[in-house]
Design a protein that fits this description.
heterodimer; A: Rossmann fold; five-stranded parallel sheet; 37% helix; 16% strand; B: 332 residues; alpha+beta; Phosphoribosyl-aminoimidazole Synthetase, Chain A, domain 2; 2 domains; four-stranded mixed sheet; 13 strands; 23% strand; globular
Chain lengths: 364, 332
């Protein structure tokens, strides 16, 4: 209880920030996109969405790592899971993501595949070290937040010569996706709420183009109600005054320079590559692949993984949802053919997916 | 280190030795040790019966073990009908090679929990399965109790206007098990709340003549239980988030793992719905009992669609639906 009434949850402070947002907007509507799935959930859970519904439209962007994992990547890891002697180690979020034919890791596990939920890539490495008879493949999903820990784990695997461990890298980078959205003439938005955790790694410099090239006010925000409201207030101020800057409203965690050490580890192990995003397609230089010196730990090399194109799911409009062009309940499948019980796309599976958040939290 | 062999489940002499030397010694009572095919019980009706299978992993966890849990869990289910639990039966499925010392520890813990709850284990069964056919040990218990309150509290009896109370901090058991299973440690240790609630139930029934609903929010946690009540009774349940008791260490552990404490299992908490007029008396009765010191009123049942709506500390609202499956920790 204490955690929810501390300074960053203080209801009185929140109410005064809500008042300040309304005042700054002076009747104008603010249409912003939060890029991070954790923000999507925080905005619903805290009630910010319902409190500001009359003055703020918020769109959920492509910032849930599970949601942007491409169908063909899902097909590839499901294929790996069914190979003999392979143990797939994964964060829990991926367990229920449906692949071709609606099959998921959970289903593969029930059929006999070895799937192990881990809390960190280091746990997967330790499992490999203590189970030399198994080929342990860690599923590398996530953005700049998780990639450094995966990189550090690969460095450790190399140093310790643990050869039955590999990573299937599906990591993605946030700024190139924002560039794609900002350049899309069909997407109308006033501002970006930038992801706090990713920014802690990359800093604020990689976002500057949003303000300088596209004139879109953007604010790095934390995840507690006061953090989010303070950031929305800053966005409201900028849109009201017609200015566009990249502001950092999460200074207790995010340094403008980011975390250079984490970035150095990331670049030592990974090279930037083109990557497929679910519903969006291939975005140039938006993913991370293992460098050739890490080939013995690269699951794509070790298992000769070839990603096959997977036919699109009829009716699924995940792509438009992920780009903020369509609210989740605007998809014809939402709540009918696609529910958390029988998800069609990952946006309905992941706890941080925008469709799941809509389905779960919105008082209809 | 003595281990349980397949012979111990054979029904032959090895089985008898295990039953006499371990189970009878620790759970001793006249109903059990008569060794007939069934126990003959003096029970006056109506009778409340509940059964539950326990498969917890790990078997020993901070705050309890599978033995204590197998008693508390079934005692609580029986007690939630406003009944006084009196007798338990217990069936053990044990994996070949299980340490006898661990079995002794588990049955000792059952005996202690049963004594505290005032119940007797009156019948049992032991099976030993080959290595790999079970995860250490599974226990199934069935409980029998005499109904004290008429009409018995039920999930179907919530009415618009009822006050919604919980008996204390939520989420402790679920997070303790997850942390223990995954080898996570927190600065402040999180301990399971597992406890028998029949004493607490009797205290509330004595103080409040009309208790509409008693439920223990085990798997799926508070929100799942409230959704079940909302569906059974056809009411909307409104919850004030700021009023729901969650320990700071559980809240921060959950925040770190991306879990919601209101969906985590509890094994020593109850949810209680009483008419508004008795809300204060029920709360006082809960708080006067050692297991209800942190009880709180968290909301109200309203006429409306069968659902649970949470009002957040800043005055916003969100739906709180049942989860599709278990909660899984998030990526970042």
């Amino acid at each position: 209880m204490d955690q929810r009434i501390d300074g960053f949850h203080d209801p009185a402070l929140c109410r005064s920030l809500v008042g300040a947002i309304r005042e700054r907007l002076a009747g104008r509507r603010l249409r912003f996109m939060e890029v991070c799935g954790t923000h999507t959930v925080a905005i619903f859970r805290s009630g910010i969405r319902s409190v500001l519904a009359d003055v703020v439209d918020h769109l959920s962007g492509p910032g849930c790592p599970v949601c942007v994992t491409h169908d063909r990547e899902v097909a590839a890891f499901l294929d790996l899971a069914s190979r003999p002697n392979v143990t797939v180690a994964t964060f829990g979020d991926l367990m229920r993501v449906p692949g071709p034919g609606g099959r998921s890791l959970k289903a593969a596990q029930a059929e006999g595949a070895r799937v192990k939920i881990v809390y960190s890539p280091a746990d997967a490495l330790e499992w490999a070290a203590s189970h030399p008879e198994e080929q342990v493949v860690f599923l590398g999903v996530g953005f700049e937040t998780t990639a450094p820990a995966v990189a550090a784990t690969l460095q450790m695997a190399k140093a310790r010569e643990i050869m039955n461990f590999s990573v299937l890298s599906m990591h993605k980078l946030v700024p190139p996706a924002l560039a794609a959205l900002a350049a899309d003439p069909d997407i109308s938005l006033d501002a970006f709420l930038l992801p706090g955790h990713v920014s802690a790694i990359i800093g604020t410099e990689p976002y500057q183009f949003l303000a300088t090239e596209h004139g879109i006010p953007s604010v790095v925000a934390g995840f507690e109600p006061v953090d989010v409201l303070d950031a929305i207030k800053t966005l409201a101020e900028m849109t009201a005054s017609g200015t566009a800057r990249v502001e950092n409203c999460y200074r207790r965690v995010v340094a403008d320079a980011g975390n250079p050490r984490a970035m150095a580890i990331l670049h030592e192990v990974f090279a930037v590559t083109d990557a497929p995003w679910r519903g969006i397609g291939v975005i140039p230089r938006s993913g991370l692949a293992l460098r050739p010196e890490y080939a013995p730990w690269d699951a794509r090399v070790v298992f000769a993984v070839e990603e096959q194109d997977v036919p699109p799911i009829p009716g699924c409009r995940c792509g438009e949802v992920l780009k903020g062009k369509l609210a989740p309940d605007g998809c014809p499948l939402f709540g009918r053919a696609c529910t958390p019980a029988a998800p069609v796309g990952p946006c309905m599976v992941s706890t941080e997916g925008s469709c799941a958040a809509y389905f779960k939290y919105r008082v209809r | 280190m003595d281990r349980i062999l397949l012979d111990a489940g054979s029904g032959g002499k090895a089985s008898h030795r295990l039953i006499h030397d371990l189970f009878f010694r620790l759970l001793d009572n006249d109903y059990l040790t008569r060794m007939d095919d069934a126990a003959l019980l003096p029970v006056s009706g109506p009778v409340a019966v509940s059964t539950d299978g326990f498969t917890v992993s790990p078997l020993f966890f901070p705050g309890g073990d599978i033995g204590a849990l197998a008693v508390h869990g079934t005692v609580n289910d029986v007690a939630m009908l406003g009944a006084r639990p009196r007798f338990l039966t217990a069936a053990f499925i044990i994996e070949e090679g299980f340490l006898v010392a661990d079995l002794e520890r588990i049955v000792t813990s059952m005996a202690k929990a049963a004594k505290e709850a005032g119940v007797l284990v009156v019948a049992g069964d032991t099976k030993v399965v080959p290595k790999g056919a079970a995860d250490g040990m599974f226990i199934t218990t069935t409980g029998i109790g005499e109904v004290l309150a008429q009409p018995a509290p039920s999930g179907h009896r919530a009415r618009p206007g009822d006050a919604v109370l919980v008996s204390g901090f939520l989420g402790d058991h679920g997070l303790a098990i997850m942390a223990s299973r995954e080898g996570l440690s927190f600065d402040v240790p999180v301990v399971s709340d597992c406890a028998s609630l029949n004493g607490l139930v009797e205290a509330v029934l004595a103080a409040v003549p009309e208790v509409h609903v008693l439920r223990d929010p085990t798997r799926g946690g508070l929100i799942t239980t409230l959704n079940e009540i909302a569906a059974q009774s056809g009411v909307e349940i409104q919850v004030e988030e700021a009023a729901v008791p969650v320990r700071p260490e559980v809240a921060s552990g959950c925040s770190f793992l991306g879990l919601d404490p209101l969906y985590l299992a509890n094994e020593g908490k109850l949810v209680c719905l009483v008419p508004e007029a008795h809300g204060d008396a029920a709360l006082a009765a809960l708080r006067a009992h050692p297991l209800g010191r942190h009880a709180a009123r968290i909301g109200t049942a309203k006429a409306g669609p069968s659902r649970v709506v949470i009002t957040t500390p800043l005055g916003g609202q969100r739906l709180a639906d049942m989860l599709e499956g278990e909660q899984l920790p998030r990526i970042c």
